[in-house]
Amino acid sequence: MATPPESPVEEHAYELEPNRPPKPIPVALEELCRQTKFSKQEIRVMYRGFKTECPDGVVHEESFKDIYAKFFPHGNSALYAHYVFKAFDVNCSGAISFRELLVTLSTLLRGSVYERLRWAFRLYDVDGDGAITRQELSEVVVAVHELLGRRAPPGSPASRIDDAKAAEQVDRVFRKLDLNQDGVITIEEFLESCLKDDVITRSLQMFDTGL
């Protein structure tokens, strides 16, 4: 009986590490090229780094938080890293695969402004129900302030001032994005408002590194 042909995934399973002993990698290089805006060589380089840092093939939330803590040593990055992790974890498995990481990085680094905004919406839509509430916006804004070390110790007079400033910022942004003033921001409202804002558009374009 003839041996069945290899599937496309099996056929390309070892292309990510062509100079290493064969290992069962459940991903095809050609498929990753189609799904992202990275070249084969770029994907190979990123995969080697990924396997070095994450030998079990996935990134768990605690490891993700450790990475953020190294980049933002002067603030508390844990809360913001939690929200970013959820946005990266597309299939809500509790771990980020190389494919999920690569697809998201492709969006953030080389995606259109529209694609980046859709990802940003996912970040702020904490419960994933398709709408951003004032509470969700507030949670992420507070997380950003903690990340940057801008929040005073809880309970101190300075902390109350920080909380008031954060609340004012949330109110201002929420009024701007909630076009029909119904108490939630939909993806359509988010995109329409942000695409009209030159400041937001320019800040998103800064991610385009041309790697």
Structural write-up:
- The chain has 211 residues and is mainly alpha-helical.
- The chain folds into two domains: 40-110, Recoverin, domain 1, CATH 1.10.238.10; 112-210, EF-hand (Recoverin, domain 1, Orthogonal Bundle), CATH 1.10.238.
- The chain has eleven helices and four strands, in the order αααβααβααβααβαα.
- The chain has helices at 8-11, 29-35, 40-53, 61-71, 78-88, 98-110, 113-124, 134-147, 157-177, 187-195, 198-205, and strands at 58-60, 95-97, 131-133, 184-186.
- The strands form two sheets. The chain has a two-stranded antiparallel ribbon with strand order 1-2. A two-stranded antiparallel ribbon has the order 3-4.
- α7 (113-124) packs across α10 (187-195).
- The N and C termini lie far apart (49 Å).
- Mean pLDDT is 82; it is low at 1-14, 21-25 and 206-211.
- Pfam families: EF-hand_7, EF-hand_8.
- Residues 9-20 have a biased composition (Basic and acidic residues).
- InterPro entries: EF-hand-dom_pair, EF_Hand_1_Ca_BS, EF_hand_dom, Recoverin.
- This is EF-hand domain-containing protein.
- Residues 76-111, 112-147, 165-200 form the EF-hand domain.
